[in-house]
Amino acid sequence: MVDSHAHLADEAFSADVEAVVQRARAASLTGILCIVDASDPEEIGRADNVLSIWDGLRTTSGVHPHRAAPFAGRPNQAAELTDARIQAEPLVRAVGEVGLDYHYDFAPRDVQRAVFAGQVRLACEDGYRRLLASQMETEARLASKKAAEYIPPKNMPPYNPSP
Question: 14, 54, 85, 140: which is deepest, by most CB within 10 A?
Fold first, then answer.
């Protein structure tokens, strides 16, 4: 069993992330996908530490819709940060957590859509899975599916949780 959505690189786990991973392993998890915000250098640093704890850990790379506001007028920069993390870390297995979150509206909706579109384009072109934020999930899934239909992957590797 794999935990496909764990925020182990969040600052809240800094003090006891090793114990959290140990409990997960004791509960028979065979892997954990650690969500990483590509726009947060401190979280990226914590993710690098998390990856060193256990070889069953993998990560994502993406800009969450809550953090899309700084990319207003330059949504491609979010995709560039996401891609830079993918290129730097071979254990990235998905683009995410990305999507649309209209419940809290921490970022303007048009900015969320533009940032999301750029990251979906990146995922489709490079053959990465997309891990979507849950608010406005239907709209996000439809947008992601529509993009995938029009963007041929450069290379679609089979899913392999191993390094």
Answer: 140
Residues forming a β-bridge with 129: 94
Question: Average pLDDT for consecutive 10-residue bins of the chain (163 residues)?
Answer: 94 96 96 96 97 96 95 96 95 89 89 90 79 57 58 46 50
88: left (phi over 0), alpha (psi -120 to 50) or beta: alpha
All domains of the chain in start order, with CATH = 2-150 (3.20.20.140)
Instruction: Check residue 159 and give its pLDDT.
Output: 41
pTM beyond 0.85: no
Residue 123: predicted pLDDT = 85
Q: In whole angstroms, what is the distance from residue 25 CA to residue 21 CA?
A: 6
CB atoms within 10 A of CB 56: 17
